[in-house]
Structures are given as C-alpha cells and as structure tokens.
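Anyone have tokens for Ribosome small subunit-dependent GTPase A? Sequence:
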Amino acid sequence: LLDEPQRQQVTEIKQIYEALGYAVIASEDVEATKELERFFPERLTVFMGQSGAGKSTVFNQCSPELQLATAEISQSLGRGKHTTRHVELIPLYDGLVADTPGFSAIDFLEMEAVELPKQFPEFVAAASHCKFRECMHHKEPGCEVKRQVEAGTIAT
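Reply: yep, here.
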C-alpha cells in the first residue's frame, strides 16, 4: 500500500500521461476500466507491460466471465509471477484484445540512439519544428523538444 507522498507522486505521474493523451487506469478501479470500452470496437488492441501490472485483471474487470488467471505480486521477488504464458486474442467490446505475457525487463540496447526519441509521441510532434532533421534533442541549437521541456509542455 502507498503512503500519502507516494499517492501524490502517482497522481502527478498519472496527470502527465493523461495530458499526453494516454488512458491511465488502475486495474482495481472497476469504473475506470469501463472507460476503456471506447478504445476496443473494430480494433485489435494489444496490452503489454511488466509481469504483475494488472493486464489480465483489467480484462476480468471488463468481462468477468473471462476468468483469466491472475496472481498477487511475489513478496519475495517484488514482481509478477508470469501467470499469462501465451498471447490470447479475446473478443471484447466488439473488438479483439491481445492479452500478452508480461516481461521482467525492457531494454533498448538494439535501438539506434536516433530512433529512441521517435518512440515518444510528444517528441515526434515537437521534433518536426526542430532546426535539424535528425535532432537528438540534447545540445543542438533550435531544438523545439528542449524548448517545450523548458516551458513545461513536455514532461521530464
């Protein structure tokens, strides 16, 4: 359980992602999971995340008859237990959702440095206004991403 400073930190981070257009929900918040319904019709939606993040729990909240296996976070390991072991396509709200196995870690070692900023929608939108086409948003003059970070438009 979170203490009050931790709750405040979670709230602040949630607000940052929501401002970027992401739907942020807690798997135990049944009402919030209902908000997801609008994202599914006529689409294939893929849920990905760390083991124990609550992916299968969210699907069970949306459609209790699914009865997907879930487990508590391992107290000894401090992480999820890999309950989902294969990708499963689930019909949900007139679309398909892929419930995927969680991962223990994510790395970007195979990604070229120039590709990393392209993975963040807020960078992509601002980068088209940078002075240099392959701007790394580090020390280049005329960098719109850096300007927006300084202005608080892009969160750090």
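The helical segments are 4-19, 30-34, 55-62, 121-127, 144-151.
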